[in-house]
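Sequence only, no structure available. Ideas?
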Amino acid sequence: MRIEQLEYIAAVTQHGSLRRASEQLHISQPALSEAVTKLEHELGVTLLDRRRSGARISHRGGELQPYMVEVLAAVDRLRTAAGDQQAGHPVIRVGTVSTATSTLLVPAVREFRAAHGDSTVEVLNLQQAEIDQGLREGSLDLGLVNTLAGDDPPTDLVSTTLVHGRPVAVLPADHPLTAYDEVSADQLRAEPFVAMRAGYLMHRFVHRLFGTEMPSVSYSTDGAELGKLMVAEGLGPTVLPDYSVAGDPMERAGLITYRPLAGDRTSVNLVLRQRRQQHVPRAVRDLESALLTLARAHRPGRAGTEREPVTSERA
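Reply:
I predicted one. Tokens follow.
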């Protein structure tokens, strides 16, 4: 199987005939047809329905098309990254569960860019499992995830704890619950609640917090940034790590605030992950260093949510 064979299938699907596809690809129609036929023989399936009026993807080809698109997309990313590296413009890809984005990740990227103006930082909002898999496959260079105390880190990745914190109730600034020094699960249970979708650590935590009695009216969203926005718009409270809220622009602007959870002493950590490799590119090391430096200086802004001193741990 060759990459160009998949590109030929994509071109025929796009243009609707072998002739038009061959014209766009600047190859002869017999050569294109032969390459497609060889691929069909290799896979043992008919990928194209050939008719006098043109050609289109077959039913079986349609089932396989998402996999072909995925391969071509990966090849395109490889070519782009290789071209960027050759041109002296490295691309660093960071996967994040969208936590501490404005309080840690964005400032670190800003500092990194000041020293590496020729580099590109691509930030992808993903779930933790997707981040770990992306690191293993090499499509990501760094990952930011949340973990609970006692969670076992993956043994095939390097994990560095950046910040220790606690889950807190995040509230609209004018919410009645802001009158309390602490907020209980029963008080939150009585409110419309903004929950994280399955796959995020805070989804797991709030099910532990509420048990079988979840709030009767709730909203579901992806990641802390959208969650904070929904809280600011008055849809209801949510629960997030304190380091994702303290110092956030919406908290500084007085749109949202937060309170400790009554009776809860759960520890949550912000962890930087990367794959194990002998040679780490300098640009990746420098962005990691910026994250570590800012993490050491990161502190909560409210009494009752004091964190342990920032430490780094390698697993």
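The chain has eleven helices and twelve strands.
Hope that gets you unstuck.
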